[in-house]
Structures are given as structure tokens and as C-alpha cells.
């Protein structure tokens, strides 16, 4: 997370790799020498509520601070109208009877007419509104006597109304009631805001003021932003890791992610400050909170929707070691361990079990088929090891086949890593989570990192990685073609070592262009649009072409991992009956190549080529040009015993040949 900037800038050395690029490269692919199985989980996604990933991101709620629980209760809201007297708008606190959602807004009206008392909500950096789309407004309210009338309006930048309706609220005595109304937007706006005008006399209490678009993912009311989820679904990820990231640890233990507080009725989910709110002085986000409108039930449902294995990461009794570094003492670890055990029952348990019953009551009687869980994120030191051992013993005693992901800390080398790695391998950890936020050079030169790892011990989860065009956590980091190419080169090494590496995910996943804290990120969004970076298309190409069996690919009998700036891996896909070869040309020269497939007697007449490339290493996709760097598919003809093609300068090529 917080790391020291690199002190020396290491110049890009790609160009020097291109010596000898004129000679034809003879790739040999041994189709008849299967090496390893590719796990269905191999390429996945890492989700964290960072960069407005959940609130203001995939969670489609448009109202910011809907329950007035932010530290400043009216943050995001403006009071409208006149004349107003002192005390007409007050924040009430009922923590003695509702500690999860203690605050609400009380409005006192004096025979007000429309336009004399109201509220405006600014949304998350505005609200993205689409012409012709239905919007669903709801609130919880209470009033001793009726009636009040609410006039609600969406307003664009020019203060023009682009959608409105009204709602009459009757008396509720002392009861809270929910009321909803829907209306259609008459225009599109990137940064609309929302007005509520209140007409009537006397008191009204308001809470959980909410506005959702109709077009959520799978049209679920109160659901997720469909365009963002579609980008994930399109990758067909093997797993989805959630909820992070450092968000799992929290700045302190009080701020850690507690899954039990994120399920059930949304008005009972207790909001906390998002730990990324004030993490970086250079990117402050004072209005960043976790409302948990998206909680663990929704994450499991999302995993199921996109066909990804769920991978929850739980706090292990340690807060972020870059922040407070608070520890739960060992004799107070039970509730943490119990959370892990209960989560397995919540996800998989029989509906007669208490947590399984709750899952069924929430609408999912079938198991979520949870098979693995992470204990801790980026935790390190002997304190981690002693806590991990306690978790492992308790979980394995009850669920012997359940797989645990263990942290190897923040960095892929160094003293902390060496210590933890030694401990974890000797504990026979199921899966070790390695993180690398490094310069592109690191990715190129580590394409062989796993070639010498032991084959019969723990599996590796490359749980967070992204090539950094500047130093880690620098706000100048960009998702350019160079970073994507470096990741592609490295990923050929992961694929070649699929018997050791069972999972990998780029991080972070999403960033809002007006609300990010951390860059680079896989997918960038504004309030209306989203686009995949070149890094996204690399991930997608690997994931859609993951195959199931690794086969050797060599040049001069050697694995292809940097010679003449070439990197390669190959798999067989038993379902599509294809050999799939991935070749990265990291040099600025075209490289004429021939690929021989050993073990295939007769090659078909054609092969499919998907090429992702750019001549400009620093070029990027953008909202204006989201398709600048995307894969282009062509068919090439095969003559004779080898596939002849030219690897374009700075390219990733995926070649698919029917067997
Ligand atoms: O991906 C951003 C952050 O990087 C994650 O929260 C953390 O695990 C890592 O330091």
C-alpha cells in the first residue's frame, strides 16, 4: 500500500532487446507433451471499494449520504428555500434505539409551499442520468400528522429540470414507513443533481433517501451498475476476490471490514468511513464512506452471476500495518475466527443451519459453493503467522478440504517476504498470495519467476499486480500500452507455470475519473461511461483463452522468456479443441516467426490471430477513444507444416489453431 517511491528512475530498456530481430524465430509447440493443468480459477478479478469502486461505482445508488450518517451529517446535501428559520432542518440521533442507523433528518414546515423548503443532493461527483430511463426514488419517513407533498426533480448543469414527479405522504404516527415513486428522465446529463421540495405544514422525519436507475445489472432493484459489471462478465473471470485489499484490514480494527454487518436490510447496515477517505494527502476524498449497500450477500450473488468462484478475504485480527497496526490479542481472536467459520456456513451451509437459514431467507437457499477464503491481506511478521495458525487450525478442523489463501506481505521480495515465505512453505500453506506493484522492467525480467518454484507444495495466487509507469502510489501512474505489454509478458510466465500458479488478478479493478485515490487501475469510469484500459484487454485475452492444459513452447529448446524480447506460452483447450499460443513481442521491430506444432499430423488451412498492439508505448485508451488499443482478429492461412506470421512490434498475439 503506502510505499517509498523508487529513488532512481530505471530507464526503459525495451529497445535494446531488439537486437537480432531480423532473424526468423522458430517456435516449437509440443502439443504432445502436456505439462500441467490450468486451474479454472487461473485468471480472475480483484474487487475493492477503492477509487469509488462500490459507493459511487458499481453500487448504482445515486444519492450520496442517503442516511445522514457521514461524519458531517449534511455532507453531499444542501438546504434549499427561504425564508427558513433556525431549527427548520435538524439532525436527530436515536442511537439508544437504533445504533446502526442512528441519524435522520427532521424538517419543520410552516405552511410551506413548493419552493420554500427543500434539499439538494449532489450525488457522487454528480449523477449520471440517461434520457428515457426510469429512475426509482424512495425514502423512509415518519410524521405525526399528514399530509406532505414531495416534489422531486433531477436538475442538469444549467439548472434545467430533466425529470420530475411528486409524492404525497400520509400521516404515520410514530411508525417509520417506506414510500417510492418512479419517473422518467427527459434528458441525459453527466453531472446532474437532485432536488426534493417539501410542501405542507408541521414535522416530517426523513431517512434512507434513495434514487436508483432502472437499468441495473440484471434489472435488480437497488442493484449494481450494469455497464461496469458487464465489463467483468465479458472477461469470464475464474474467481472474484472481495472486498479487498487494505479495506479488509481497516486503518484500525474498528474500521475493519466485518461481513456480518453487511447483510440483511440495508437500513440496518452500519456505515463506516472508507479507509481510503484520507489515506493519501495528495488525493483526499473526504466524502468516501462504506454504506455497505453492497455487502457479502451481493458479492456472492455477483460471483455467481459472472460464473466466478467467490474468494472472500477476511481480517485476521490485524489492522493495516502501514496505519495503526493494531492487533487483536490472541486471547481475543475468537470472534475473528468465528466470523470465518460462520462465513463458510453462510455461503454453503444447509438451510437448517443458522447461517444457511439466513442465506435462504435473503433469497438464496442454494449453496454459494465457497471453496476458499483469504486470511488477512498484506499482513506480515510473526504476529501474522501466529494468528494465521489459529485460524488454520480452527477452519481445517471443521472443513478439512477448505482452501486458505495466506498473505506473503506487501512485496514479492525482501526480508519480510523471505521470512513469511519460509514460514508459509513450511506450514504447507494451501495458497500463498503474492503482490507486485512494480515497474514494467520488473515484469519483463520476472517472466521466469516461477520456473524454479517447487512443484509439490503450496500454490501461488498472484493476488495483486499492476505495472507502474511511475513509482508505486504515484498519482502520475498511467495505464499505457507499456504497462499492459509488461504484464502480458509476465503472464506468459504465470501460464507456463500453471502447476504452481493457480490464480492471478490485476489490482485495483475500478477507478472513477473524478474520485480515484490509486492509479493505475484496470477499468476507468465516469458517471455514464466505462472503458477498459489496454491492461484490461490483456487480462481479457488471457482469461478468454485460458485453455486447460499447458504445453511447452520453446525457441532453441529454451522457454521463451525474453530472448530477442519475445515471451510465449501455450495451452490446449479441450472444449474448443484448439491449441492456443500467446506471443509477446516487446521489441520495436516486427519479428518474422514460424510455429511448428509437434504432435499434430496435419494442420488446418487457417488459424485465428488476435493481436493487441500499439506502436506508441505510452498510448492509452480514454473516454474519447476507448477502443484505441483493443484486440483485432484476423484469419491467416497455413501452408505446409508450420504457421508463419510476423509478430508486430510491441504486440501481444494470441494464435488459435484447431487440432
Ligand atoms: O490495490 C490497492 C491496494 O494495494 C490494496 O488495497 C492493497 O492490498 C495493496 O497495498
Can you describe what's shown?
The protein is α+β, with helices and mostly antiparallel strands and 659 residues long. The chain has three domains: 19-37 and 551-658, Golgi alpha-mannosidase II (Immunoglobulin-like), CATH 2.60.40.1180; 52-62 and 216-546, Glycosidases (TIM Barrel), CATH 3.20.20.80; 77-213, Jelly Rolls (Sandwich), CATH 2.60.120. 16% of the residues lie in helices and 32% in strands. The protein contains nine helices and 35 strands. Strands 4, 5, 6, 7, 8, 9, 10, 11, 12 and 13 form a ten-stranded antiparallel beta sheet that branches. An eight-stranded parallel beta sheet has the order 3-14-17-18-19-20-21-22. A hairpin with a 4-residue loop joins strand 24 (523-525) and strand 25 (530-532). It is globular, with a radius of gyration of 27 Å. The protein starts with 24 loop residues before the first strand and ends with a strand. The model is unreliable at 2-21 (pLDDT under 50). It binds alpha-L-arabinofuranose (AHR). Residues 1, 48, 50, 244-246, 377-378, 410, 464, 507-508, 518 line the site of alpha-L-arabinofuranose.
Give a quick rundown of the structure.
The protein has 659 residues and is α+β, with helices and mostly antiparallel strands.
Task: Give the key terms.
Jelly Rolls, binds alpha-L-arabinofuranose, 16% helix, alpha+beta, 659 residues, 3 domains, eight-stranded parallel sheet, 9 helices, Immunoglobulin-like, globular, TIM Barrel, ten-stranded antiparallel sheet
